[in-house]
Amino acid sequence: MPALGNAWQRPGIAVFLPSPGRATLNEAWECRPHRALSHESRVMSRHAIHGAMPRADMFHAYGVEYSGMQPPTHHPWHSTATTLLFGISRRCGRDTLGRMLNRLPSILVLLTLHLVSAAALGDTLDAIHQRGELIWGADAEGGGPYVYPDPKMPETMIGFETELAAMLATDLGVKARFFQGPWHNLLDLLETRQIDVVMNGYELTPARAGKFLHTRPYYIYQLVLLGRKDNPRLRSWDDVQAPVAGERKLKIGVLEASAAQDYLEEHYQDVVEIVIYEGTTDAMREVETEKLDATLADLPAVVFYRDRFTELERIGEPVGRGYYVIFLRNGDEWLRAALNESIGKLLASGKLEEVFRRYGLWTDLQGELSLLGTASDADLGVTATELRGWAVIRSRGWILVKAAGMTVLLAVVAMPLAIVIGLLVALLRLYGPAPLRWLAIGYVEILRGTPLLLQLYVVFYLLPEVGIAIPAFWAAIAGLAINYSAYEAEIYRAGLQAVPRGQMEAALALGMSQSQALRRVVVPQAVRIVVPPVTNDFIAMFKDTSVCSVITVMELTKAYSVQRNDTGATLELAALTALLYLAMSIPLARLAAYLEKRMNRRPRVTS
Amino acid sequence: MIKNAQSAVTVRSLVKGYQGQTILDGISLSVARGEVCGIVGPSGGGKTTFLRCLNGLEDFQNGEVDVAGETLRPAIPARERSRVLQRVRRRVGMVFQQFNLFPHRTALENVIEAPIHVLGMPRAEAIERARGLLDRVGLGAKLNHMPDMLSGGQQQRVAIARALAMQPEVLLFDEPTSALDPRMAAEVEAVIAEVAATGQTMIVVTHSLRLARRTASMLHVFEGGHVLESGPPEQVFDAPREEATRKFLEDAHQK
């Protein structure tokens, strides 16, 4: 079946990786007998374990330069296991114990993970110094002006974040190493320790603040509404607010899990149709081809791409206001302190301003950056929230269930089409006249030989360029049906060839035309033969519908990805998503078994 | 041979080769109306291929076949050919060595399929006739059996009923008892003999000398793509003119 290997099409890959489940750990920590142990001594002991004493300048940075610091709520990872065991076996209040027992399964999972990984974990700042590299994660795909390949030397990355990373690394006394990752999976990469920090236009949001540490802001962004110059329906924000009665809602594209999405959902949920994209330029192109009325994007992206999308212009004033921050793993207080200090220095020396000016990103607003060194989350207008457990399922579960409905709909509409087209192609290939036969072979080979993803792109993004605009849902149906029809055609070809030749001869000898013989004798027998492999493909298609998210169809995997990104509750949402997929595919497998059995009551014996 | 109104099938100088090998080397023969024409001969002699040329399941390189009011020849354009063949096949029935019943249809459905969908016969009428035919071949009690629930002999009898349902001018049998054990072969033989007795024009290609002797009114011995000898069965069996025929008969009896 179509094998699409890119991890970003399968965000699910990341979901089974360890999720620390901090609430649980904190509770364990709360009932720890020696909780009075000073933070400093714990830090000392942590460094002692790693054979490196904490450096004086780190304390300096911690206590003096960064007064916004709060004592870490998370103890070192390697003591987690002992803590948990100790916490459970020692008394703790009855309530706490009960609560912990409720969470026993997840505790056991975490315990195992922590035991396994404990030895390898230490302070990231130490690791950075040891290896001499700060590994920062970002996505260079459509990444201008943040991080993108240098047009003159495509092997080299440029962009204001690339420069910022270099300057921060220099200040730490190390080199910066760029790590390419899919944008909406960067926090997973962070969590699984493949990168040290995430710095890629990641806005500070309540959910992210609840799950990760972050530095002080390094940029204050605003959102810009981009529309066509010649669109009289959309001249200002007022036009968004008050759509003309009786007319369809304005369609506005946003980047998945971006502040723009949050902004629209918060302020315009009911008056506009929000369409979610994976790449900024996808949405901009869609505005040009009039599939969208506008896109709401971060100012840096708008500045960067203004030359490429000359038919677009800013509509109204920039809105919203938020902060780009660098995200770090919980527990990396030292690294945060060091980075905060460096950002402070770069602001004070004007180096950062120089970079922003060079990229055309400096606005008066940025003057406030230097005042935000000690700002708390509350000062930045963000209340760290952490949704976990049943709370996530309760608040987000129905969104996933709805998206599962879309997944079912896609597969249930696309598969019958694929089967019909596939049968026609197989018949042409086996029984058609020569030119049609070659056409059928070409059809199968081309569609089987190119990825579904590419085909969806062609249907959705390229056909509009030649004047054929298909709504996303139907583009997805068409893409899936056409792609799978090639596979079904081959299955049918095998099935048709498995029908003994004597059957066709017997039918012809009775005076049937070839098409009659196929219709009444050969195809019905072939269908029986192909039921198992076709069912198999049907189940495969259920899962391949996830690829349709690239053309903005909100199906289950996409909904999972969005909600996961929003809440950070990977484990819960992934489990629910997996359950929903199973709930779809298991009945289908049952149905197939039933069909097979029913048909086999009339088995083929003569040859 | 001259085309004559009394013959159901006339074959003139039929030549067929396959991959450089000559299978039929200029065969001419005719089958009179009401005649039961038996074709025997050693394996590889071209018997089955000859039979399949008569209803266009095989094409040939040279010669002509007059059958069912049409003349088959190699030069028929492809577009016309399928229509000509369809007309021929409507009026020429065939019974296969491997029965070739439609496995997804019951015995009755096998028999009514072509009358309804080829001849356009009303369903009720087709069913009534099919019941009669299945009764006639001794399967009146198994109308709704799927083919795989029937023995080989029963399947072959359904196949004969299926062919008869089209009221063919000529009925072709291709080794009808070769895939059957002796007991089942005897059942089928009895049915073929019964059909032959009704005056149905038939061409029976067979290995079974017993079947040939029992049913044929005219016998042709094929060998190496030629007709070795022709004549009434008594003459061919009891007083063969050709040495090769005598040898074939001896070999066949020894088996």
How would you describe the overall organization of this protein?
The complex is a heterodimer of chains A (607) and B (255). Chain A is of the alpha/beta class and 607 residues long. Chain A has four domains: 22-122, no CATH class; 124-218 and 325-375, 3-Layer(aba) Sandwich (D-Maltodextrin-Binding Protein, domain 2); 220-322, Periplasmic binding protein-like II (D-Maltodextrin-Binding Protein, domain 2, 3-Layer(aba) Sandwich), CATH 3.40.190; 391-599, MetI-like (MetI-like fold, Orthogonal Bundle). Chain A has 24 helices and twelve strands. Chain A has helices at 22-30, 39-49, 56-65, 80-89, 94-102, 104-118, 124-131, 160-172, 186-191, 206-211, 237-241, 259-268, 280-288, 299-305, 333-348, 351-358, 389-431, 434-449, 452-462, 472-498, 501-509, 514-544, 556-567, 570-599, and strands at residues 133-138, 148-149, 157-158, 175-180, 197-198, 213-214, 219-228, 250-255, 272-277, 294-298, 312-324, 327-328. In chain A, the strands form three sheets. Chain A has a five-stranded mixed beta sheet with strand order 4-1-5-12-6. A five-stranded mixed beta sheet of chain A has the order 9-8-10-7-11, with helices on both faces. A two-stranded antiparallel sheet of chain A has the order 2-3. In chain A, helix 3 (56-65) crosses helix 15 (333-348), helix 17 (389-431) runs antiparallel to helix 18 (434-449) and helix 20 packs across helix 22 (514-544). The longest helix of chain A is centred in the last third of the chain and has 43 residues, at 389-431. The two termini of chain A are 31 Å apart. By secondary structure, chain B is α/β, with parallel strands linked by helices. Chain B has one domain (7-100, 170-254): P-loop containing nucleotide triphosphate hydrolases (Rossmann fold, 3-Layer(aba) Sandwich). Helix content of chain B is 40%, strand content 25%. Chain B has helices at residues 47-54, 78-91, 107-117, 123-136, 152-164, 182-197, 209-215, 233-238, 243-254; strands at 7-18, 21-32, 36-40, 62-67, 70-72, 92-95, 170-174, 201-205, 218-223, 226-231. In chain B, the strands form two sheets. In chain B, strands 6-7-8-3-9-10 form a six-stranded mixed beta sheet, with helices on both faces. Chain B has a four-stranded antiparallel beta sheet with strand order 2-1-4-5. In chain B, strand 7, helix 6 (182-197) and strand 8 form a beta-alpha-beta unit. In chain B, helix 3 crosses helix 4, helix 4 packs across helix 5 and helix 5 packs parallel to helix 6 (182-197). The longest helix of chain B has 16 residues, at 182-197. The mean pLDDT of chain B is 92. The chains are: A alpha/beta (607), B alpha/beta (255).
